[in-house]
Structures are given as C-alpha cells and as structure tokens.
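Hi P.,

Sorry for the delay on this. The queue was packed all week, but I finally got your sequence through. Input first:
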Amino acid sequence: MSKSKYVIGIKRIRDYSGKPVKEPFLCYASYDKYADHWSTGYPVFDNELNHAITFNSVEEAEEKFKAWSKGLIGFKSDDYDLSSLAIMQVAIVPKKKSRFSHIHD
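Then the structure:
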C-alpha cells in the first residue's frame, strides 16, 4: 500500500557550470543527512528524489518553503525555470523485504 506525500520541485535548465542542459530535469528541495541541517547547511535543490524532503500536506510544504526560501544559498535563478516551481504529490511505496536479505544482514 502506498502513502501519499508531497515534495517541492523545480526544473533545472543549466548544468552546474552554467551551460544549458539538453533536457531540463527536476530538482527537489533537499536535506543533507550529513550536515544535520538543510543541505550544505542551507536550503538547496538536489536532483535526487530519494533525497527530497517530504511533507504530509500541501499546506505543510508551503509553510516550510516560505520559511526558508529567503535563505536559499547557491540558488541562481538563471539556472532554473522559475515557472516550474511546484509542490508535487508522490506515492511512497514501502520496500518489500528481499528473499536474499539474510545474505546482507
């Protein structure tokens, strides 16, 4: 059974060196497990969905984004399609235990 969550996403149109990308790709508001706070110490966008911060509701996502969007570090608006900024619903599907999991334990 899947559980619905929400993420904040935006399309990136330039690579990290500032060159246009062939195909725009989604980046998600992310949290860095290693920094113990928002990625690199600040809110950022990352292109890995599995790093994305998830929210229980659209309202929760909006509230959180408003609180930290002013502090986005390293966010160059020219690198993103600002019209694509959105809160998106995703389905979280619990991972089934592999029949080989005993090998990795």
